[in-house]
Design brief:
Organism: Corythaixoides concolor
Pfam families: WD40
Low-confidence stretches: 23-78, 194-237, 295-303, 320-338
Structural class: alpha+beta
Shape: elongated
Subcellular location: Cytoplasm, Cytoskeleton, Flagellum axoneme; Dynein axonemal particle
Strand content: 15-25%
Keywords: Cell projection, Cilium, Cytoplasm, Cytoskeleton, Flagellum, Repeat, WD repeat
Radius of gyration: 51 Å
Strand order of the largest sheet: 3-30-29-28
InterPro entries: Dynein_IC, WD40/YVTN_repeat-like_dom_sf, WD40_repeat_dom_sf, WD40_rpt
Length: about 700
């Protein structure tokens, strides 16, 4: 290494070796076992060609192949004191015998063969065993010496893998094809375009092509004989005919869309519906059925047939009444009522008609409500009957004057779960939906849009609104001015009051918290720690306000508890009624007794309660099915209706407390979801999961007696 001036500045080594000194261990033939840390075996390594040349002569070809290989001598034991520190020339020239031995075999993988050579010693033994095995396989079928047994092996740990996907919806579609449709489809390329004149004379060119008319043949022959004169006349007439045809179409469309024509159709529809449903509507309104006034004396045979049919029906009614008396009336009950079987007339159900159309098919009836001022107007809410298959909802207003098509149709983005008419403003219809929103519609308007919606409210519900009602405020504070509140209960555990202003907004009347079940502690049992709850809120399912004190209301929860609450106290419950083992679907105060109320649940039971007692008075259960809805009769303090999944039941507590007096079964396709009594007549409305509302007439319903409560 040179610097800038050219001087040698190469660094010199600090250690200078002596060329005459012998490096220890360089020329040694053998090394001690202590130097290598072994157990006494001596290792020979790195032999040069000069050192191995003498050994090659004595070892032959075998040792020649291993001249450059490291050899391990495990059998040669050399003590450290026998090793000389320095080798002389005589030692180097002396011949040394080297013995190569095989080391111990280390088996890393041992796979025994399944075949042997035919020339091996074990070939005869293997052939004999194979022959014995073949004989055993031949003699095994049907032999009692062999028994088959199951052997359980250890299976690997199973892995569960869940995959979520959208539901695959299958649809069947079909169409009807006629022979001429097939003909036109196969020969559409062969049809030549016709002239405008031919198009103006005939509505379709296909019929002219396949089925030429006589007039068309004549025009073709005349045009061929007279030449260009006739053809020019036909071409000049075609725009005039086309314009006349267009004017006729526009005129007919204007007639169909005119308001006068629509009103005339409306009146005609009313007349036709009244003619068709006149006997049913007369029975609904408890009016006599009118006969045709044109029936004269020469129709005596028809009148006789009508009278014979009436007598036969009367005899059948007598027979049914006798059967129902034998089936439902218990002698002990008759003794308590101080009546004989002849004095008790059983109830009967007669189906009149049903509210149903193409729009409501497949939509479950979730709720029904009568108009407060018009007893002929019924509002029905439609939604999905199964929470897994939610559809778009409908809120329809049906009239008794047209049971075949609703008067108003309000389409909702989500399934309708509850609805109710306002009392102060009868034209307002409040609708609760499955997504937690609340909307108010004006039934006087034919528009589909809602007047008010809770979508912009910051306090809107986060769960389905299972029930809502318009409730009057305390009349003593407002005098003649009747103000009302819109109350809702939702699955998010809140009972809310909605304020109707420029937009919908709500305040909480109660936030229902989960209540721990009261379990009796056995003697000697330790107290268990309370389990952690996923949600502190109890899902609300239904509510009903007291008929006299509008400050008190009952709220049913998904836990199966019924809480008695007050509007003036939103922190705690007044009472808690424990009797149901499943979600409470409906609670209803008795219209005749302010202390009694009913409740129905998913535990297949209906319970009668007294507000001063937390123990059920009576429990009614007749079928293993969910009881979705109940309602007291407005005419009798003993009668109430219950909607099971498979049937609707009418209970008359004056006759029996063990079995319903009337049972009407649903069809195989749907199940009953809700019930509603008519206000002014003895009729019952039942809604099912297929979108049908059936109207039944209760015959022989007793008049209300204020002394029997």
């Amino acid at each position: 290494v040179f610097d800038d001036e050219g001087k040698d500045v190469t660094p010199h080594p600090l250690f200078h070796s002596d060329p005459n000194a012998v490096v220890p261990g360089q020329g040694k033939l053998l090394a001690s076992s202590a130097y290598f840390g072994a157990t006494g075996s001596v290792v020979l390594s790195s032999f040069s060609m000069t050192q191995t040349s003498g050994a090659n002569a004595s070892l032959g070809s075998f040792s020649r192949s291993h001249s450059l290989t490291s050899c391990y001598f495990s059998d040669v034991q050399v003590r450290p004191e026998e090793i000389k520190e320095e080798l002389t020339k005589e030692d180097l020239d002396r011949k040394v015998d080297i013995y190569l031995t095989e080391t111990e075999t280390i088996w890393i993988l041992d796979m025994p063969p399944v075949v042997v050579s035919a020339e091996s010693e074990d070939a005869a033994r293997v052939l004999e065993r194979n022959r014995i095995y073949v004989d055993i396989c031949k003699n095994r079928p049907g032999s009692d010496r062999f028994v088959e047994k199951m052997v359980q092996t250890v299976n690997g740990a199973a892995k569960n893998k869940e995959v979520q996907c959208d539901k695959i919806i299958m649809e069947d579609k079909g169409m009807m094809v006629t022979s001429w449709d097939l003909y036109d489809s196969f020969h559409v390329l062969e049809i030549e375009p016709t002239s405008k004149a031919e198009g103006s004379r005939a509505p379709t060119g296909k019929n002219i092509k396949s089925h030429p008319t006589k007039e068309h043949n004549q025009s073709m022959s005349i045009s061929s004989e007279r030449g260009s004169t006739t053809s020019s006349i036909m071409i000049s007439e075609s725009p005039v005919l086309a314009r006349i045809y267009e004017e006729e179409e526009c005129h007919s469309e204007a007639i169909l869309t005119s308001e006068n024509f629509q009103q005339d159709l409306f009146f005609m529809e009313r007349i036709l519906m009244e003619n068709i449903f006149q006997p049913k509507l007369a029975a609904y309104r408890q009016l006599p059925v009118l006969l045709d006034p044109d029936v004269t004396s020469d129709t005596s045979g028809t009148v006789a047939a009508v009278e014979a049919a009436k007598q036969e029906e009367h005899a059948k009614l007598k027979k049914d009444e006798a059967e129902q008396k034998d089936a439902f009336i218990d002698p002990s009950i008759l003794s308590d009522l101080n009546k004989t079987p002849e004095e008790i007339v059983p109830l009967r159900l007669e189906r009149l008609w049903s509210y149903r159309c193409d729009l409501t098919n497949g939509h479950g009836v979730s709720s029904m409500a009568w108009s407060k001022v018009n007893p002929d107007l019924l509002a029905v809410g439609y939604g999905g009957s199964d929470f897994k298959e939610q559809k778009k909802g409908l809120a329809c207003c049906w009239s008794l004057k047209n049971p075949m098509w609703p008067e108003r149709i309000f389409r909702c983005e989500h399934g309708v779960t509850a609805l109710d008419f306002s009392m102060a403003s009868p034209n307002l219809l409040a609708v609760g939906m499955y997504n937690g929103s609340v909307a108010i519609y004006d039934v006087r308007s034919c528009k589909d849009a809602a007047l008010l919606d809770s979508s912009e409210s910051s306090n809107k519900h986060t769960g389905p609104v299972w029930q809502l009602r318009w409730v009057e405020q305390d009349r003593g504070a407002t005098g003649d001015d009747k103000r009302e509140r819109l109350i809702c209960i939702s699955a998010d555990g809140r009972v809310t009051e909605w304020l109707i202003q420029k937009r919908l907004d709500c305040t909480d009347l109660m936030k229902m918290k989960r209540t721990e079940s009261e379990k009796k502690k056995l003697p000697g049992e330790k107290e268990r720690k309370s389990e952690a709850l996923i949600s502190q809120q109890a899902a609300g399912m239904c509510f009903d306000f007291h008929p006299k004190d509008t400050n008190i209301y009952l709220a049913g929860t998904e836990q199966g508890y019924i809480h008695k609450c007050s509007c003036s106290c939103n922190e705690q419950f007044l009472e808690t009624y424990r009797g149901h083992k499943g979600p409470v679907y409906k609670v209803a105060w008795s219209p005749f007794s302010a202390d009694m109320f009913l409740s129905c649940s998913a535990d297949w039971s209906v319970i009668l309660w007294h507000q001063d007692s937390q123990t059920p008075i009576l429990t009614f259960s007749s079928a293993p099915a969910f009881v979705h809805d109940i309602m007291w009769s407005p005419k009798s303090a003993f009668i109430f209706a219950a909607a099971n999944e498979s049937r609707v039941e009418i209970w008359d507590l004056s006759v029996s407390i063990f079995q319903p007096v009337i049972t009407s079964f649903a069809n195989s396709r749907g199940k009953f979801m809700s019930v509603l009594f008519a206000k002014n007549t003895d009729c019952l409305l039942v809604g099912d999961s297929e979108g049908e509302v059936s109207v039944f007439k209760l015959q022989n319903l007793a008049a209300p007696n204020s002394n029997k409560v």
